[in-house]
Every structure is written in structure tokens, then in C-alpha cells.
Design goal:
mainly beta; 0% helix; two-stranded antiparallel sheet; 6 strands; four-stranded antiparallel sheet
Length: 72
Amino acid sequence: MVEFSYQNKNERMVVLRCIGTEQFYLERVLFPFELLAFKAPEGSRVEIWGHEHYGPKIEERIRIPTEKKSPL
């Protein structure tokens, strides 16, 4: 699991969806300027959804990176 955080920098609400391996799924509504921190599997997809007049619209896609392990 990798720590990840996202801040809604919009002046309106958005929906954050995180889809990962092993049936990991997280969905949260973020209010304007709200910060969300959570742990997710490496390589998970994060989608930020907003709303337009015609319906939901994906605004941003983020891939959670894999942690780099330090050589011993």
C-alpha cells in the first residue's frame, strides 16, 4: 500500500474514485479545497469526476506510482 493525497482545488465539489488491485475501491465526494489522504495499492487508478450541464465529466486521471525500494 502507498500513501496518496489529493486536494480539490476547484470551487465546486468533485468525486474521487480510486480503483486498485485485489478489489480495492474508494469513492468520496470532496468539497471545495478539501484534502483527502489515504492508502491504496501500488499502481491504482484515481479518477476525478466533476459535473457539467450535460452530466458527469472526468476531469483528471492519476496513476498512483509504485514505491521505489531502496537497495540494501
